Amino acid sequence: MVKNMVRDLAHNEFAEKAGEVDQLGIFPWDNIKLMAEHGLLGINIPEKYSGAGSDTVSHVLAIEEVARVCASTSVVLTTQALVLAPLMIAGTEEQKQKYVTPMARGDVLGSFCLTEPGAGSDAGSIKTLAVRDGDNYVINGQKCFITNAGESEIYVVVAKTDKDKGHRGISLFVVEKGTPGLTFGKKEDKMGIRGSVTREVIFENCCVPKENLLGEENMGFRILMQTLDHTRTGVGAQALGIAQGALDAAVKYAGERVQFGNTLNSFQTIQVMLADMATQVEAARLLVHQAAYDLDEGKDITRISSMAKLCASDVAMQVTTDAVQVLGGYGYIKEYPVERMMRDAKITQIYEGTNQVQRLVIAKTLF
């Protein structure tokens, strides 16, 4: 039911505007409002916090269907989940009521502030510092590549509370938009997901109350790792949706395009390409859905979530590239969506842990 509902919403409301969102770099507020009205921004959040009270499987189905037509819009779903996860994992009841509730309703958006100019995959090398000052923490530092920055009202910030302890000195804080000392840099001009806003977030003597600390001081790295275990599956679903959308476009085109007196889908070389693409998409789907199911069952998902993200994003890059090849010259122009999908797919191999890092995570679970 969820899958069909979101598919109808995406195809009827998002698909036609997806090209314009990409070309002009429009933040899709209209789409976001519609997703909020349909309960998608808090689909797997308990009803007591104004969520839909559904499960992770429903969540990844929703992400997949939105990404199938507009990856930029789907980023809002994955990012909202990324911000909600640490709040649900480590937040106090008061913090959940204050921050989770409006986010689950879709009244406000969130941003997750981890990456810095000198710290990407190596979270332990972040320089942003939070110093205790009485009943407050004073935050100074700079974050980059932050999704929804400037548009969000709630920021979960990863900072050092003990700069000499590496990843053992990390803590997480909630910072609200409008807090003095919180400012934003320029909007990045990206290859793909161009409708998703990405900016620097700058903290200059940004003072937040101690009540905004998530969990215990210096215990943030554990929360961070748990968060990423939870949310990589969503990025896998996003990649899966992009791949499925590209496959749909390639199959449709192959049935319409005539060469040498026959449609493309009558040629075995094209049939083989499409068969491989479909097989890769289905294999990725099974991994993503298994990871979501295991999370709902309370199982250890470190390995399976990394596998799902790794597999689905690699498949997305391969399938979108092959879709461009099936469409030939038409695939290379912006009139057809596979060109956009190919650009959108690339980021899924990079954010929330590069695929090189995912392979290291998987290897560690083997040994």
TrEMBL record:
Its cofactor is FAD. Signal peptide: none annotated. Pfam families: Acyl-CoA_dh_1, Acyl-CoA_dh_M, Acyl-CoA_dh_N. InterPro entries: Acyl-CoA_DH_CS (IPR006089), Acyl-CoA_Oxase/DH_mid-dom (IPR006091), Acyl-CoA_Oxase/DH_mid-dom_sf (IPR046373), AcylCo_DH-like_C (IPR036250), AcylCo_DH/oxidase_C (IPR009075), AcylCoA_DH/ox_N (IPR013786), AcylCoA_DH/ox_N_sf (IPR037069), AcylCoA_DH/oxidase_NM_dom_sf (IPR009100). Keywords: FAD, Flavoprotein, Oxidoreductase. This is Acyl-CoA dehydrogenase. GO terms for molecular function: acyl-CoA dehydrogenase activity; flavin adenine dinucleotide binding. Residues 1-107 form the Acyl-CoA dehydrogenase/oxidase N-terminal domain. Residues 218-366 form the Acyl-CoA dehydrogenase/oxidase C-terminal domain. The keyword Flavoprotein applies. SUPFAM superfamilies: Acyl-CoA dehydrogenase C-terminal domain-like, Acyl-CoA dehydrogenase NM domain-like. The keyword Flavoprotein applies. Belongs to the acyl-CoA dehydrogenase family. Residues 111-206 form the Acyl-CoA oxidase/dehydrogenase middle domain.
